[in-house]
Design brief:
The protein is of the alpha+beta class. The chain has 23 helices and 56 strands. Strands 16-15-11-12-13-10-17 form a seven-stranded mixed sheet, with helices on one face. It is globular.
């Protein structure tokens, strides 16, 4: 979140967003954030006034305006003009501008004299293509990013087959090689001096450029301006919309943690000045590229020749331009004076005004021969608008419940954040010291005594927390960004273990279900949270501190006063420094207490979870043809394979969390979620969520490979790289396309759907802008998601259903265009309202869901939805437009039986079962449930629980996994068919394996059919038997799988008992290439002691006959 652009962005309706706000900031999940301040300021200052804010402001619209007095013509003398100018200057001086806290520098043409070299490099690029262009051709496209800079000229000249990405790459090579060598002196004189002066004045600084990051870094190095002179560097790489859209400036303000109205932009391009105005920022334009007249169209507050002519005083005293300041070549006061000296109005203009108001009494004809005056029509329209607004507010009351007066005050005044000049240990200690001595920081309200606590007894700032440095984590367990913060908290807890530092999780629920203590307890267990957690379900602490977004971290001094409060991910380093500074300062004062905080961890209390073989299973996939079920046993960090009756077959990983490839025993996962089975390749794809990786499980070779992601949370919104070079961000589910050429990935962490191409190995963003919204569009670029958490291919294969959890909606993704449409749930009208949730069946247009995490498409066109926070399974019929509950009462619990009485607890995964059944990952119950869907013979849905008693616990390590697997092999596998052979009484001989498949089948290409021999344990009685080889590949010939194994046995004829040798065979075969099967056979061969010396040939024969799978409601492509 700190420097990337994906955010968990849940915003109530009253917090109006700016036009074209930045790609939902990875800084926070805002309820009211600093960006939205512009909606509360008059449009005359260059910002928008939201309709909701207008209503709440008390402004009224008169139905009848009194006739204005007739103005008299007045001659304006030179003296009067001078007086007007003087008066305007005095008025401007009397009105203090909003404070300035940050300066955003454009790069090309502001910090670096790079516009002319850029045009020259572009001319050279086109020359290499055989296209003659001039440097002047590029002027209209300056400041809009390299893609537009080059692509715009290519379009003008009609260059066919122009590849923007290749052109950009070559352009950078030419530019950097010729013009941007390190310290080559392309910096404008005075640029570094002004940056340093701004920082010395306590202003935060950032580069906000439409150039790609590679050019930004090269230019700054060439100009001799160190990167550490800037608190943020925002470049064009992660934006689809560049200047004049304000996205880059919004992102820079968010990263700096400064409201937009407290930022000043320095720009040389008209597009940049326009973007600053659209962002609600003041701007200073420099004429290094364009004339003052050209730049004035963007309404800068000030125009200077170049950066050397700008002073810190110019910046800190800058006013917003008024609507009258159209002549931006001079200061605003002069423009106002010029306006005062203009010719005066004439009586005709007054007559026109009176005529306009008189026209309101003219009749307006209505259908049916009726008429009404325009004035009355406006009255009725205003009344209708008021009623509609009231109804809208009542319908979306939930979205208004997260705000507080303190949050609005924080937006206007800012919160406690160390200034830019407080960097470094000494600077942070000084910051803490100044806060303490001034007493200006907020006193943090104490926790209400009635609040419920987990992992500890109730805590108070006046008792247990007195003398402690306390880090408050405001979170809600549905929020993926809140989950991203937990590793940072764990690292800080470990670093400061044994010191007077306490982390307290303040759980401030977004969803109704999240207010339940048991639900929070399950989240604490699921995410291994070991610090105290308080259930602030009524948002008391949230409102008291004015928190406005999830996640937010707040550091509290041992005196109970606020040290700093920052929203978003990626702030571990900042709070690490602040904690260290606080310990140093308050330790020297003797204000710290070493009294321990007694903990009572929830994980030591929940016997049900401890006793279950699964821990919070997330997702499921089935292989009905081979009778297998794949379970993501998320908190055991493993994938479990059973048969369709729940009998254990295999486990993959489980020896702790990590990102390790290798055999089933060696492999490691980190809370895996989605699984998808590819029957044509016998592969299983796994969304390894907290490893931020996509894994591929070879079920034949029994190996695990990472095909995308490297274990670190990514911040790439486009993709295109291969393997571990392509970072991912919390992938939550996976699903194959109809042609099985690609795996679609629900990238919950950055609110997108990605596509992994199985042929090329490339992983790219397929749909979604990265903003967190419930936005449905025709194409990928105008579509946005809110933590997509489940995917399921629709019948026909052209669409994929998406459970969009944070918008509480079921949506359909178009696999051709990347666009989407709403099926049910969520807010169909306001994309940014992610608070439209509930539990309501009925028509798809009115039905409500609550954080759905599972979806499963059925062959008849209907869709099953795991309505997770309602603890229900619902059936959605997009054709008929209906939603009905099949199972669940709405309350969490464990109960089998008819659907209306059955209970689940946050079900999250769904998979097809045999004979019209569906498997359910009942996550918080740590169970797998089986739902028997209604049918003609049984019209009531029935819920049962799958028996998983044969599942082993996860191994403690990879070495114990190997020994555990050897023990498990001595147990009969559920998927093996046993063939009992007659006793063999020979000292030597050969076992001839002969397995056949039907003539219309063939062996699977690329899959080795294998055998392995299991000898009796030493000391088990009977003869000692040896068999060679003990494992290997079966030889495939036509429809036969063959092998020959030599044996010898030692023992006297009068030895008692017999030794049983087991020969395990697994054959992979297909009838069609898109559906591959396997057959596991276990030949049990008893050996009886014998004195016979002659060798004997033993035939082990088995004819494979495919068994038809149970009928399933699986859609076909």
């Amino acid at each position: 979140m700190a420097s990337s652009l994906a955010c968990h962005n849940t915003t109530p309706l009253f917090a109006a967003r700016s036009v074209n706000d930045a790609r939902a900031s990875n800084q926070a999940n805002p309820v009211v954030n600093r960006r939205n301040y512009q909606a509360l300021v008059n449009r005359r200052q260059g910002r928008r006034l939201s309709f909701a804010s207008l209503l709440s402001s008390g402004i009224t619209f008169p139905l009848k305006k009194p006739a204005p007095p007739r103005p008299r013509a007045v001659a304006v003398t030179a003296a009067a003009a001078d007086g007007a100018a003087a008066g305007a200057g005095e008025a401007a001086a009397a009105t203090a501008p909003p404070p300035v806290r940050a300066v955003l520098f454009d790069m090309d043409g502001v910090l670096c004299d790079s516009e002319d070299p850029s045009r020259e490099a572009a001319v050279a690029l086109f020359a290499e293509m055989g296209v003659a262009v001039t440097a002047q051709d590029f002027v209209p496209f300056m400041g809009t990013g390299e893609a537009n800079f080059l692509g715009g000229v290519a379009r003008v000249y009609g260059v066919k087959g122009f590849d923007t990405e290749k052109a950009k790459k070559r352009f950078f090579e030419i530019y950097i090689h010729r013009f941007a060598r390190p310290n080559s002196g392309i910096g404008f004189p005075g640029a570094l001096k002004l940056v340093d002066e701004c920082r010395a004045a306590g202003l935060r600084t950032a580069v906000a450029s439409s150039a790609d990051r590679v050019k930004v870094d090269a230019n700054l190095a060439a100009a001799g301006i160190p990167l550490d002179r800037f608190d943020a560097i925002v470049s064009a790489d992660k934006f689809e919309r560049l200047k004049p859209f304000p996205d880059i400036f919004f992102a820079a303000a968010n990263e700096l943690g400064v409201p937009t109205h407290q930022c000043v932009v320095i720009e040389d391009a008209l597009a940049g000045v326009q973007a600053a105005t659209a962002a609600g920022m003041r701007s200073i334009a420099v004429t290094t590229t364009l004339s003052a007249g050209s730049l004035a169209a963007g309404r800068p507050a000030l125009i200077r020749r170049d950066i050397a002519d700008i002073s810190v005083a110019d910046i800190t005293t800058l006013h917003f331009p008024s609507d009258e300041d159209n002549d931006s070549s001079g200061p605003p006061a002069a423009a106002s004076a010029a306006g005062a000296a203009s010719p005066t109005a004439t009586p005709d203009s007054a007559d026109g005004a009176e005529g306009l108001w008189a026209s309101l009494d003219a009749p307006l004809e209505l259908p049916g021969g009726m008429s009404v005056t325009r004035r009355d029509a406006m009255r009725y329209a205003s009344l209708a608008m008021g009623l509609a607004t009231t109804a809208f507010t009542l319908d979306n009351l939930k979205a208004f419940s997260y705000a507080s007066p303190k949050a609005l005050l924080n937006m206007l005044m800012g919160t406690a954040v160390p200034p830019a000049n407080a960097a470094g240990p000494r600077g942070l200690v000084k910051y803490v010291q100044q806060l303490d001595r001034s007493g200006a920081s907020d006193l943090v309200p104490d926790f209400e005594p009635r609040l419920q606590w987990l992992n500890s007894a109730p805590l108070s700032f006046t008792r247990e927390l007195r003398g402690k440095v306390v880090l408050l984590d405001f979170w809600t367990y549905c929020c993926i960004n809140c989950m991203h913060v937990l590793p940072d908290l764990a690292a800080l807890e470990k670093k400061y273990e044994g010191q007077p530092v306490v982390v307290v999780g303040v759980h401030s629920a977004k969803f109704d279900n999240e207010k339940d203590l048991d639900a929070i307890r399950n989240a604490v267990l699921r995410y291994d949270i070991l610090h105290p957690v308080v259930n602030d379900g009524d948002m008391l602490m949230w409102r008291g501190l004015g928190v406005s977004s999830w996640p937010t971290l707040a550091l509290v001094a041992p005196t109970g006063r606020l040290i700093a409060m920052v929203a978003g991910e990626g702030n571990r380093q900042l709070f690490d420094g602040l904690i260290a500074a606080s310990l140093e300062y308050y330790g020297a004062k003797g204000a710290l207490s070493d009294a321990p905080i007694p903990l009572a961890l929830e994980r030591s209390k929940d016997q049900r979870v401890l006793a279950s073989p699964l821990r919070f299973p997330g997702k499921l996939a089935s292989d009905l043809a081979n009778g297998r079920l794949f379970l993501s046993d998320s908190n055991n960090h493993r994938i479990v394979v059973t048969d369709l009756q729940g009998n254990f077959l295999a486990q993959i990983g489980g020896a702790g969390d990590g990102l390790v490839d290798g055999s089933f025993e060696e492999a490691q996962f980190n809370r895996p979620q989605g699984v998808a089975y590819d029957p044509s390749r016998n592969l299983l794809f796994v969304a390894d969520t907290e490893n931020h990786a996509l894994r591929q499980v070879d079920l034949v070779g029994e190996t695990v490979t990472t095909v995308a992601g490297d274990g670190r949370k990514g911040q790439d919104y486009k993709g295109g790289a291969r393997g571990r070079e392509q970072p991912l961000n919390s992938p939550w589910d996976v699903e194959l396309t109809a042609d099985r050429a690609a795996v679609m990935v629900a990238m919950a962490g950055q609110h997108q759907i990605w596509r992994f191409d199985l042929d090329t190995g490339r992983c790219v963003a397929f749909s979604g802008s990265g903003y967190e919204r419930n936005q449905n569009g025709r194409f990928a670029s105008d579509t946005a998601y809110a933590q997509p958490s489940a995917l399921s291919l629709a019948p026909g294969g052209s669409e994929m259903y998406v459970a969009d959890s944070e918008s509480s909606a079921l949506r359909a993704l178009n696999l051709q265009t990347g666009g989407s449409r709403l099926i049910t749930g969520g807010d169909a009208n306001f994309a940014e309202n992610l608070f439209k949730f509930g539990d309501r069946d009925g028509s798809t247009s009115r039905a409500l869901l609550q954080h759905p995490l599972g979806a499963l498409s059925l062959a008849d066109g209907t869709v099953l939805v795991a309505d997770s926070y309602n603890h229900k399974i619902k059936l959605v019929d997009p054709t008929r437009g209906s939603v009905v509950t099949l199972a669940g009462t709405g309350s969490a619990g464990v109960r089998d039986g008819p659907g209306a009485q059955a209970q689940l607890s946050e079900p999250a995964g769904l998979a097809h079962g045999p004979d019209g059944t569906v498997f359910i990952a009942d996550t918080n119950n740590s169970l797998i449930r089986c739902l028997h869907l209604p049918s003609a013979s049984s019209p009531t849905a029935l819920l049962s629980t799958l028996d998983l008693s044969s599942l082993p616990p996860p191994p403690a390590s990879s070495s114990s996994a190997s020994s555990q697997r050897r023990r498990l092999r001595r147990r009969q596998k559920a998927d093996e068919q046993v063939v009992e052979e007659p006793p063999v009484a020979a000292a030597t001989g050969t076992l001839h394996l002969r397995l056949s498949i039907p003539d219309d089948y063939h062996f699977t290409a690329g899959a080795s059919s294998k055998f392995s021999v299991e000898l009796p344990e030493a000391g088990s009685g009977g003869a000692a038997v040896t068999v060679t080889p003990q494992s290997g590949d079966l030889t495939l010939s036509g429809s036969l799988a063959l092998a020959s194994l030599d044996f010898t046995q030692e023992g006297s004829p009068d030895s008692s008992g017999s030794a049983v040798v087991q020969v395990h065979c697994k054959v992979y075969y297909c009838q069609q290439d898109d559906l591959c099967l396997y057959k596991a056979v276990n030949f049990k061969v008893p050996f009886s002691p014998s004195a016979a010396a002659e060798a004997r040939d033993v035939q082990l024969v088995f004819d494979i006959t495919p068994a038809p799978p149970g009928k399933a409601l699986v859609p076909t492509a």
